[in-house]
Structures are given as structure tokens and as C-alpha cells.
Amino acid sequence: MTSTVRLTVGQAVVRFLAAQWTERDGERQKLFAGCFGIFGHGNVAGIGQALLQNELSATGDDRLPYVLARNEQAMVHTAVGYARQKDRLQTWACTASVGPGSTNMLTGAALATINRIPVLLLPSGTFATRVSGPVLQELEQPYAGDLTVNDAFRPLSRYFDRVNRPEQLPSALLNAMRVLTDPAETGAVTLALPQDVQAEAFDWPAKLFAPRTWRISRAQADPADIAVAAEVIRSAMRPMVVAGGGVHYSEAEEALLAFCEHTGIPVGETQAGKGSLPHGHPQELGAVGSTGTTAANAVAAEADVVIGVGTRWSDFTTASRTVFQDSGVRFVNVNVARFDAAKHAGLEVVGDARATLTALTEALDGYAVDDAYRERQQTLWRAWDEQVEAAYHPSVEVTDALADGLLTQGQVLGAVNELSDPRDVVLCAAGSMPGDLHKLWRARDRKAYHVEYGYSCMGYEIPASIGIRLADESRDVFAMVGDGGYLMMPTELVTAVQERVKVIVVLVQNYGFHSIGSLSESLGSQRFGTRYRARGEDGRLDGDLITIDLAANARSLGAHVIEVHSASELEQAIKDAKAAPADGGPVVIHVETDPFVFAPDNGAWWDVPVSEVSAIDSTQHAYADYLEHKQAQRPFLAPADGDAS
Ligand SMILES: Cc1ncc(C[n+]2csc(CCOP(=O)(O)OP(=O)(O)O)c2C)c(N)n1
Ligand SMILES: [Mg+2]
User: Fold this and answer.
1) pLDDT band with cut points at 50, 70 and 90 for residue 643
2) pTM here?
3) Minimal CA–CA distance to 485: which of 506, 464, 457, 505?
4) Fewer Cβ atoms within 10 Å of its own Cβ: the N or the C terminal residue of the chain?
């Protein structure tokens, strides 16, 4: 007879999750570090009771620690920050109550799926039996009796299931783990759990709870594809690599280094791929695309073969398809997901980045770019690096022109870069800083740069910094957050206090949305509605600055706050923050900047449509400008293995 265990669905979920492991390259680790949650009806009794029972009685590897968050969107961000830092080998589950608690996780789900980061979401549902419906927070639709708000997770999840009967749970759980641990499929995985089902008991086969190891294998590309790819690369005069997040997730940095050193091919980096080559490497081109360096973009403009490694080719990477200007440019795409490998009519080399780069290096034996190409790339890079130096240390003319107590954003980024340890992590997500960081940050370690630019979600910064620090306590984490981003999601400072997690938040106050203000201006919309100003006498939002005290706000949430008003105070603050106790909770450095000192220009574009007709002069001018930029847009349709001419 099969041995069985009688547990509720909630208890079975918790017990199962605690028993899951991943293994790659012979290293084994727990898949779930724990479960974040906020309780309400729906999960307070079901999953909540199960987590309590686990906390009270489970020991060692059977534990699934519970952490109370402050906002459900934020707890998904924390899980994403953790999973990305762990190269997608480990993550967290997130439990939320019926209705708003669950739908608050939707933004987090989209962010995880877009960035290809595994998180397990457990939204609670209204009664599967419907006996007492409509219950509090239940959505009713006259046209569909089986619909719930949790159906909104379907388009945002890589796997979705609703467990309406206990018998459905085993296959739902196994499928959820399959997708979470598949590098080509991974993202948000959602198991919706109706509140009555969570509390229902069932006799489960004991084998369901046996420790289970999900092997994350390194998919090998087809040797025939490697051979064609090598042939295409050998035919190139001006090849370049574009390194994406897949380089990091596959731990392919050394394989990339070997590939570049054997071939002399230079490397541009996407936001997720930054740090693929350490700063200072002779083949470094830095950021490529809309927020790219002049070096990477000049090389890209003439590249005849572009080797994308682990990139999903976002518009920022290609400067909306304008950065690669060679009329016959061809793409060779190394990617574990065929979906991404096929982009831009690329030659699909479907496989793990590390394994594939190693195979390609062998297949390219004897091939190298010529010396003139190497020299050109290095000259371009040196010219850019001088601009970075000038942004980090602006001239007296620039600093003297600043109002009292203000710094430039470049100065702030430079100080954090120079005073942090090479292994410390810098983190950002939205506003003007991601672009400036992409251009200016000197990434000195493979896991030291974490800009979320798939969803570029304001409010990601503080919760994700907690996840990163939980993932690796040997690194300090610097969360760079604008005043707009801070106001979206300061709440998790309280969670950092609760868990005594040391994160260093650099809060850059510039009174509004500087990034969108600049964008608005360039599109002829005159910075409309982007400044934090009171409503003026003319009825418009152009009155006095709203001088709210964000430093006091952070202090009230339990953070240790340091306010700085000069470059030397900023230096001291960074040193003090680094010296703060490792388990002392969050430190916030509050600094005001002058947003009108910009990072060095790269002349690159980003396609944001301008109104075709308008009654405003500035919009009409912007539209003429827009049409001109559109001319440079390329379709990228050349067959990758075809004739280059
Ligand atoms: C959740 C969310 N809402 C809106 C946006 C659009 N958006 C991008 S940047 C930005 C302004 C960010 O302001 P702040 O954090 O102060 O940074 P700054 O632009 O001033 O550097 C906005 C509204 C977004 N990215 N995320
Ligand atoms: Mg701002």
C-alpha cells in the first residue's frame, strides 16, 4: 500500500516547497530560501497556518522561513533581487491574501517574467465551492462564473494554474518547479489557491514530499549550428559581441573572456549584461545602445557581424534599431531560449552561454580581428573613459556654477563607485540614473551591477536591495533611488529594519521626474507635469517647489539617515555607511543634485513617438526631428548565413 500523509493543501504546499533543491555544475542548493507574505483572509488560515506550523516544528532543511513584507508588489521585487543575485538558482515564494493583496503582485509578476527571473507567486482565491459568495473582495462578472481577479496573472506568468481540488496539487507543483528551474522558460510562476482549498485536508502520497533536485543543465548547441556560426564570424571584418544578462546567469564570464582574448572581438554590454567583462579589460566597450558609450556605439555603427550572447535585444540595446548601421549587418545569437535567438533574423545558436562560447572559441581557432580594428576600438574606449573621469570629477567651472549644497549626479555616482568595494552591488531601476549608470559605472565584479531595465519599475530599488543583501551578506548593496522612485515604495525600509538587513540607500533628491522631464522636453511636451511643484495661481503645476523632507520620512521608517550637502560630506557619508554594523538595518544617504548637469552625450536615439499634428510649436519642431531620426531605423532582416553583400 502507498504510504500517505494527511495534510491540508496549505501544509502540503509548504512541505513540498521546503523539499525542493536545484543543482548546477555539481553544486546543490535549496530552491526556496523562504516565503514572503502579507496575510488577510484567503491565506491567514491556509498557507499562514502551514507556515506557522513549519516555524514551530520543522528543523534544518525542512524549514521554510517566513518574512513579513509591507507591500505585496515589493515582496515580489525582493524575491527577484534575491534570485537574480543567485544566478536564478534560488528564489522565494510569495503568499498574498484574496483580492487586492494578490493583485498587488501583478506588477512584480510582469517584472519577473520580462527579466526572466524565477519567482513563485501564491495568490489566494475566493471559495472554489462558491458556497458563501460573493465574499469580501470578490470580483463578479455577469458573463463568467469561474473568473477571478487572479486570472489577470495568466498573461504575466510563464506557468499558471488554479488548484480547485487537492488532487490537482501534485501536478501543479511539479509543473511550477519545471518552469521555475528551466533557464529558457523561467519567470513568474503562479499557483492560485482558493481559500477553502488551502484549508482542506487530503491523504497525500508520502513520495510527494521526498527531497527533489531540479538539475539545471547546460544545454549544448548543435555542433552544426556552431560550425555555421564560426563560418559567419570568420567572414567578419568588424565583429562585436553584445553581452546580455544570460552571460551572468550562465556564469559565462570566463568563457567570454577566453572568446574575446582568442579572437580580439570587442564587447558591448546591455544593462543586464554589464560587468560581463571587468572594467579595464582591453576589449571593453562598455554600454551599448541608447544609453551606450560613444566607443561601443561607434563600433556598433560599423559592425558587420554582431554576436548577441544572452540578450533579448530590447530597444535600448539597439537604440531602437539605429545603432547598427552597416547595411548588411548580420546577427549570430547565442541564447538558451530559441525565442530570443531568432530575433533580428539572427543565426540561432540555441544553448547555454558558457558551453556555447567555449565551443565557439574552439571552432574559431586561428581567427582574430586585425590590429587596426583592435587599435581603433581601444582609442575609442580611452576617449570615452576620459569623459567618465570628467563626469566623476567635474571641473571647477561646473561645480562653481552649482547652487549651494547641490552636487551633480555624475559626482554622486562617481563617489559611490570609487568608495565602494569592487564586490559591492550598485542597484537601480528607473529615472535618469539607470542610463547614467549604464554609461558611467565601472563594474569591477560579475555580480556588482544590478539595474532592472526590463520593466524599469519605479519602486523596485529598496525592496530588491533587501533581496540582494539576503542573497549575499558579504557585499554591501547601494540602492540608487530618485525622489520619485522613493515615494513609490519607501515601505520596505521597515522590512529591512525588522530583518536587520543592511542596505545603503542613496536617495537622490531633484524634485520630480528629471528623466521624464528631459524626455518630455525632447518630444516637445515642455516638461509638462513632471516636476514636484504646487499648483500655481494660473491653475497649473508650476508653483513653488514642494519641499517635502524625505530624509525625515526615511528616519521615521527606522532608517539611519545621513544628510549631505557637499562632495566631502558625501564621501564621509559613504565611508560611514560602509562602516555601519552589518546587521544594523538600512542606512539612507540623502543628497540633492542639480539635474541639469547631464552625463556625457552619445548622440544615440530612443524611439518614443511624437504627436503627428499639434497646436504647439515645440511639438511640431519635435515631430520634424522625430521623422529625421526615423530615417536611421533599420529592419535587421539580412539572413544571417546568407551573402553579406
Ligand atoms: C512604476 C512606474 N511608473 C512610471 C514610470 C515612468 N517613469 C520612468 S522614470 C520616472 C521618473 C522617476 O523619477 P525619479 O525617481 O525622481 O528619478 P529622476 O528621473 O528624477 O532621476 C517615471 C515616472 C516607471 N518607470 N515606473
Ligand atoms: Mg527625481
Assistant:
1) low
2) 0.98
3) 457
4) N
